[in-house]
Amino acid sequence: MAIGLSSLVFMWLVWFIAHKTVKNEYLIPSLSETLSSMVYLFGESFFYRALGKTLLKVLYSFLISFIVSGVFSFAGKVFKPIRAFFKPIISVIRTLPTMAILVLILIYTNSSTAPIIVATLVLFPMIYAQMNVALDSIDQNIIDATKVQKIGKKDWIIKVYFPMILPSVLSHTGSNLSFSVKLVISAEVMAYTFTSLGGLMQSANALMDIPRLMALTIVAIVIGLLIELIFAIINRFTFKWAKNKE
Amino acid sequence: MKKLLALLLTFILAITSLSLVACDDNKDVKLSLYAPDGAPALSVARLIDDKSIVSNVEVKIVLANTISAFVTGEEKKADFAILPVNAASKMLGNASSYKMLGVVTNGNLFIMGKASAEDINKTNLSTLIGKKVGVINLANVPGLTFKAILSENEIPFANLVEGGEVDASKVNLVGLTDGTAVTPSSECDYFVVPEPAATTKQTMTSGKLKICGSLQALYGDGEGYPQAVLVAKKSVVENNLDIVKTLVNSFSANEEWLKSESTTSTQIVNAVKSGFLDSEMAPTFNANNLNKTVIENCAISFTKASEIKGDVLEYLQKINGVSNNAWGTPDDDFFYSVN
């Protein structure tokens, strides 16, 4: 706790020094101006609608990535040729310059859907790789034991693989969701999504309201941190059996 | 007698030396002019092409969204700057650091529609009601100017929220990030597009998208609106007025040079590029999208502050009216009269 607080103090100090060094309110506003802008922001009903829509997009993109990754990684574990088939496809998706093709995505969808697609395209290969690593790290003795007991493939997946990889997957979920916040908001800024945190940032920038832009940025950061904290707590108090085993 | 002559000659020598020192001071003065890429950069292209025109002023072309960094902060890098009139009003309007010398560009926004779209003029603006109009940079000058025009003509409008229903009783405004979203297959019926994108789109789509209106013709008396302004540091105006006058007086010749048949697009593009502060910056204009029509459409024409003050204040009042007074009103002191 003390280390966390000192870290926050350090970041504030960096901001303070940057503000005093740059001496330009249009580049780095003061903390006091930013905080008062934040108070004003919290009083706007539109802010909460925008926040809600952004968080929904974060959730959608994560769920889509998680489910599709789960399907492909389990399928690849059970049937090896599937994993080999998808390997180059995953590499292409991973290296695709997503922000660059955002405009193309916008032409075929809309400014609400495009950020979800962009975030999913980035998250999916990440979560897929994490699940593959988790599946590959399952103790071979356990797998041999299931073979001896002649457990069916369906039970393999549901009663063996899934519970075994869940601690590892859960440990990454917080950071994945937090990363998704960043992706979705960036895409919203570029897609000019009106009712969204990204859209609010775009407007603040256009109106040269830099304290408001900074306040929105801090809100985005805090959301990411809160998500990571929640999952860190969940992770700490669950799957004690996995940790005891280690 | 000899002593008197010697004294006289010494006196003359001293005076001459002093005047030469003064000349040297002026010769050594190096001032900077920062302008954003795009139409404002065109307005000063001749000064980059021929540095002897205003030898004391070095022109630097920067990314449009970074211009504010050069006129704000404790150390304001720009001695002169060209920037959007709304930004100038908001950041510099209190006249504490900069004075406005004049308006440089007078609007370069066009209404585009699909091949079958009706042309839009002052008499049939209501045609846009119930339609979706995609506006590049809705939150800034393009969107503000368009909203001001609609508001002035009592045409109701609203921002179309993603996933929302089109309101048949209003002009539905859709924010677009850039020109890539302006396509014949778009769901939008009309678009507000700046040059050079407007002419390029018309050419590249073989007329499937066409220019069917102009915000310059729709605004006020149809003579355009003040879009970008030239400002100078107060200290520069006070201490280097002769350089200020030379610069201001060069603009009309700049316009003629741009429009002259002997000045090629390549020459203009190369001039602007050689003034880039960041040589890796992607230029707005190239030999393919810059021609005399585009130059004409960029409405580059300098008008002194004293002559255009009323128009500037009126424009700011109108865009403030559609943006919760986001841009403020500049002080009277902000407008500097260069005689």
Could you please describe the fold and organization of this structure?
The complex is a heterodimer of chains A (246) and B (339). Chain A has one domain (31-245): MetI-like fold (Orthogonal Bundle), CATH 1.10.3720.10. In chain A, 36% of the residues are buried. Chain A is 85% helix and 0% strand. Chain A starts with a helix and ends with a helix. The longest helix of chain A has 39 residues, at 153-191. With 246 residues, chain A is mainly alpha-helical. Chain A is globular, with a radius of gyration of 22 Å. By secondary structure, chain B is of the alpha/beta class. Chain B folds into two domains: 25-106 and 226-334, Periplasmic binding protein-like II (D-Maltodextrin-Binding Protein, domain 2), CATH 3.40.190.10; 109-218, Periplasmic binding protein-like II (D-Maltodextrin-Binding Protein, domain 2), CATH 3.40.190.10. Helix content of chain B is 37%, strand content 20%. Chain B is built from twelve helices and twelve strands. Chain B has helices at residues 2-28, 39-43, 45-49, 85-92, 141-152, 197-204, 215-218, 234-239, 241-259, 265-274, 292-297, 305-321; strands spanning 31-36, 57-62, 80-84, 98-105, 109-114, 132-136, 157-159, 171-176, 190-194, 209-214, 228-233, 300-304. In chain B, strands 2-1-3-11-4-12 form a six-stranded mixed beta sheet, sandwiched between helices. A six-stranded mixed beta sheet of chain B has the order 7-8-6-9-5-10, sandwiched between helices. In chain B, α5 (141-152) crosses α12 (305-321). Chain B is elongated. Chain B starts with a helix and ends in an 18-residue tail after the last helix. The model of chain B has no long low-confidence stretch (mean pLDDT 91). The chains are: A mainly alpha (246), B alpha/beta (339). The A-B interface holds A 22-27, 103-104, 106-107, 110-112, 190-195, 199, 202-203, 206-209 and B 68-69, 72-75, 87, 90-91, 137-140, 159-163, 175-178, 180-181, 183, 185-186, 323, 326.
